[in-house]
Specification:
By secondary structure, this protein is α/β, with parallel strands linked by helices. It has four helices and seven strands, in the order βαβαβββαββα. It is 35% helix and 22% strand. Strands 2-1-3-6-7 form a five-stranded parallel sheet, sandwiched between helices. Strands 4-5 form a two-stranded antiparallel ribbon.
């Protein structure tokens, strides 16, 4: 049986996953694929992620771990924002760790409800594309 488009709200959307915890990255990727997303990554290194985003890669949305191997992800978030790419943050840190310019970005505390996060991301893509 073929899935309906409504079952796959991210069908054909390219989602960047930047997460250095292997099992969490795997969970995020699996849930995104269930709703039709094409995955970029997952990447666990900030420099690699910044280089990829600085290139000419089409990205519709992103899931960003705030801290990757003791490096904050905010420079990458600035680049994505400049490209009008919606994103969400994941973190094990308190909301106080968020750079003030990103206080309006949805923050998902670890352990993450991955399904709910994917639904939130789906909604932000639809809103940003209207």
């Amino acid at each position: 049986m073929t899935k309906q488009v409504s079952d796959q709200p991210l069908r054909g959307r390219r989602v960047l996953v930047v997460e250095d915890e292997y099992f969490l990255a795997d969970d995020i990727v699996r849930e995104l694929k269930k709703v039709g997303a094409q995955i970029i990554g997952p990447l666990g290194d900030i420099e690699e992620a910044c280089n990829l985003v600085a290139g000419d890669v089409a990205i519709d949305a992103a899931v960003l771990d705030i801290n990757l191997r003791s490096q904050m992800v905010f420079p990458l978030a600035r680049t994505l924002r400049a490209r009008n790419v919606p994103f969400v943050f994941t973190t094990g840190y308190d909301a106080a760790a968020i750079d003030p310019e990103f206080q309006n970005v949805k923050l998902w505390d670890k352990p993450i409800d991955v399904r709910a996060m994917v639904q939130e991301l789906s909604g932000s893509i639809r809103i940003s594309r209207q």
